[in-house]
Amino acid sequence: MNPCVFIIFSLLYLHLELSFANQLVINKCSNERDALLHFKSHLQDSNDSDHLPTWRADKHDCCTWEGVTCNNQTGRVTKLNLSGYNLEGEISHSLANLSYLNNLYLSGNSFNGTIPTFIGSMTQLRYLDLSDNDFEGIIPRSVSSLTKLRALRLNLNNLNGTIPRSIGLLTELRYLDLSYNSLYGTIPPEFGNLTNLEILVVSYAGRCRVENLDWLSHLFHMEILYMDGISLASQNHWVNVVLSIPKLFTLSLKECELSKVMYPYSSFLNSSSSLISLVLGNNNLTSSMYHWMFPLTSNKLQYLCLSDNMLDGIPKYLGNLSSLENLILDNNSAMIEFPVFLNNLSDEIRTLKNLFYLDISNNGILDTVHQDFWDMWPSQLRYLNLSSNSISGKAPDLSSAFDNNSVIDLSSNNFYGPISNVSSTVASLNLSRNKFYGGISFLCQIVHGNLSFLDLSHNFLSGQLPDCFWHFKELKVLNLGHNNLSGRLPPSIGSLIQLEALYLYENNFSGELPFSIKNCTSLTSLILWDNKFSGNVPVWIGENLSGLYVLILRSNNFFGTIPLQLCRLADLQILDLSINNLHGSIPSCLNNLTSMVQERFLPTQNVHPYIFMWFYSDGIRISFKDKYVDNAIIEWQGDEREFSSNLRLLKMIDLSSNNLTGQIPYEITNLYELVSLNLSNNALLGEIPWNIDQMKKLLTLDLSRNNFSGGIPSSMSGMTFLNHLDVSYNSLSGRIPSSTQLQSFPPSRYDGNAELCGPPLTKKCLGDEESQATSVNDKSEGDGEDIDEFWGWFYIGGVTGFVTGFWIACSALLLNRRGRHFFFFTFMIASKIGFM
After folding, report:
1. Each residue of 620-638: pLDDT tens digit?
2. Please, what is the average pLDDT of the chain?
3. pLDDT > 70 fraction of the chain, expressed in percent and rounded
């Protein structure tokens, strides 16, 4: 054939092939594209941005859309993965048109409503993940039609009702997770039909119970079982049932009321046990109750957690656990009543050559440790927590016993002496609340950039800060408060680009704040009170540190005016510039502090989580999760009080004890969410704003020792939550408005206003009948000496927003407490279900 003719025919054939292929894609994806677009139309992005920008009608090949995977041969959609896309809304029925869908991952969103019953028609599904959403209602029984399902995750929702017995029909299931819901009733014995099940998680699924555990003995392939929060008080034979599961290597039974079970006298663990991880925390176990577990003879056990019990001594025979790597005995309250000696523990753990994680915190241990305690470690410790005991001894050498990325917590003990050596690869170091002294030049030894948390507060450390902070690119929390440190802050502190919280309070630091701190744009808390810092309040705080929610510069030597740039801090909830040398007027733009105007609740705002992961040659990944909660000493109603987990609920402005002049700007009354306002000890003048009652959530208002004139606004009689008012030593006049609140304060709160009259003052107003003014009982003088009104306000429920926020915060903290230790063998769990 003529070469030219061959080329022409080849090009023509290629053109036809491409045209046919394009048409095939359009034809094969047309119905599914419409279904996906219809699904998207029922959703909205939780932050008002389009998280599915590639899902467009003009893009015919839906196989190229984000989160969509198709079969290479057929072009049909087989996988939809929208996990963590921050989507809101209900699941559209159009998903049922994806008839070839095998994998549906929608976790980590805000899908709401009920789980649709049509889900049962998607019979090709093998993996269904609806976890971590806002689904409510019951688990539809139609789920039992998904007979090919291998993984079903419905955890972290608001599901209620009973667990359908029909789930027992899903005989192909390998992984089932129903944890953290509001289910009730019996865990169905039909679960025993799930003979292929490898992972079962029903922890804190609600008010679920078990009537009989015999069904567990049928799960021959079970490897991981989490039943935390499920009462086993009536299951005397649960040990035998568990031992009948031949492949079980991870068992977690926290808060299962095991102290109410009559245990067999035979040893729970023996050489034939396959268990690698055992968690029995928070079961009120005492020494007389855990005899069934000892002597431990298993040579496979690597993780043992007996925390939050009532053990009155360190368990004996630990040395028999030759493979033990993780030992967690924290918060055993009975140990506080029976002194425990750390050196006795040394004899037990000295033979544990593989130990790398030890937590014996908060156990009332009373002992002096010597160097041999530290010398016995085989230089592989990754986690050591001795905190909240009464351990004393010289500052140990923390450089040799620790492996890479180590976590060291010796806080709240009686260690003393200078700190000289620390591990160069430490990731978290907490030596706070001890008696350490000397300088902190040892920080320059930490050169590998892994440090993410450093707390040296409440010691006797002195000297200047070393200029080597450029090493700490990962540092999130730096707390050096309550020491004797002095001098100027080094410029390298501006290298802490990941820093979220900086605490330098109660030291002797001086000079201006380094300009380089403006580079710390991740800061949310800047607490510098009680130092000798000087200069103007930097404008770059408002320009660059836009994420601040706490700014405390109290008790320093700052001068000049309050910079208008601070009004740009939309998330600011605590502004304390008191006891400085500031002058000028109060900025009227303070009403731009959005968090003080709008009801906003950011539950993680003052929580700084940090995660450490350790990898092993056999592919196992161990992760440790913890958090640091902001705390601050706040001047509250005349007293200093410490706020911590409730700090994010506080919204306050304190500009007291400065040289401020002018009037209170009327715009300040737009701060509807403000809880405390303190403008005392200034030179302010004019009248109290007549519409101050708009600040309905005010608990504390202190305007004392100024030059205010005129009357107390009558509208203040409607400020029913006000429990601390001080307007003394001004030039106010007229009658004190009548209300339950205003007459309940002691007369001293109105002293120094010669023209004020009416109760609770004895001075009668013009026209009053001649009768002695009723004296109001001082009781707690409004200060809350008998009952803390601030706490009462949160618990009793005066304001819906704060009450809701409080309980959400408490729930979040409880949830976190349950999971604050290892999520052991998370790598193996993830790899089994393909959710990496």
Report:
1. 556 667 778 888 888 888 7
2. 82
3. 79
- Beta strand residue intervals within 65-182, DSSP E: 68-70, 77-81, 87-89, 103-105, 110-111, 127-129, 136-137, 151-153, 158-159, 175-177
> For 5, which DSSP code?
H
Distance between CA atoms of residues 832 and 247, nearest Å: 15
Burial class (CB in 10 A: 0-12, 13-18, 19+), 241: middle
Cα 652 from Cα 69, distance rounded (Å): 51
Query: Containing domain of residue 770, as a range?
Result: 712-775
Task: Specify whether the CB–CB gap between 712 and 688 falls below 8 A.
Answer: yes
> What residues contact 649, with CB distance under 8 A and at least 6 apart?
794, 802, 805, 806, 809
**94 touches 39 (CB < 8 A):** yes
Q: Are 129 and 105 in contact (CB under 8 A)?
A: yes
Q: Which of 311, 319, 314 is nearest to 348 (CA)?
A: 319
Q: Would you put residue 487 in left (φ > 0), alpha (ψ -120 to 50) or beta?
A: left
Q: Beta strands 366-368 and 326-328: pairing type?
A: unpaired
Contact assessment for residue 289 and residue 263, using Cβ atoms and an 8 Å cutoff: yes
User: Residue 728 domain-assigned?
Assistant: yes
74, part of any domain: no
Contacts of 6 (CB under 8 A, 6+ apart): none
Asked if residue 435 lies in contact with residue 460, where contact means CB atoms within 8 angstroms, the answer is yes
User: What is the C-alpha to C-alpha distance for residues 563 and 528, in angstroms, rounded to an integer?
Assistant: 18
Give dist(CA 232, CA 220) in Å, integer: 21
What 3-state class would DSSP assign to 583?
Answer: strand
Q: Is residue 750 part of a domain?
A: yes
- Spatial distance between the Cα atoms of 690 and 709, rounded to a whole number of angstroms: 12
Q: How far apart are the first and last CA of the chain?
A: 56
Antiparallel, parallel or unpaired: β 659-662 and 683-687: parallel
Q: Using an 8 Å Cβ cutoff, are 501 and 478 in contact?
A: yes
Confidence (pLDDT) at 61: 87
Question: What residues contact residue 44 under an 8 Å CB cut-off, 6+ apart?
Answer: 87, 88, 89
Under a CB-based contact definition with an 8 Å cutoff, are residues 157 and 133 in contact?
A: yes
Residue 836 domain flag: no
CA atoms within 13 A on the CB side of 172: 15
Q: Tell me: the pLDDT tens digits for 434-447?
A: 999 999 999 998 88
Number of domains in the chain: 1
Conformational region of residue 331, where left means phi above 0, alpha means psi within -120 to 50, and beta covers everything else: left
Q: Which residue has the higher pLDDT, 402 or 568?
A: 568
Residue 780 has pLDDT above 80, yes or no: no
| Model confidence pLDDT, tens digit, residues 126-145 | 999 999 999 999 999 999 99
Query: Which residues touch 822 (CB under 8 Å, ≥6 apart)?
Result: 303, 305, 326, 328, 357, 622, 623, 624
pLDDT bin (cut points 50, 70, 90) of residue 663 is: very high
pLDDT tens profile 341-395: 565 566 666 677 788 888 989 888 888 887 777 777 666 788 899 999 988 989 8
Instruction: Give the torsion through C-alpha atoms of 585, 586, 592, 596, to 10 deg.
Output: 180
What's the farthest any 2 CA atoms get from each other in the chain? 128
**Which residues lie below 8 Å from residue 602, measured CB to CB, with a gap of 6+?**
549, 571, 648
Counts for the chain of helices (H) and strands (E), in that order: 9, 52
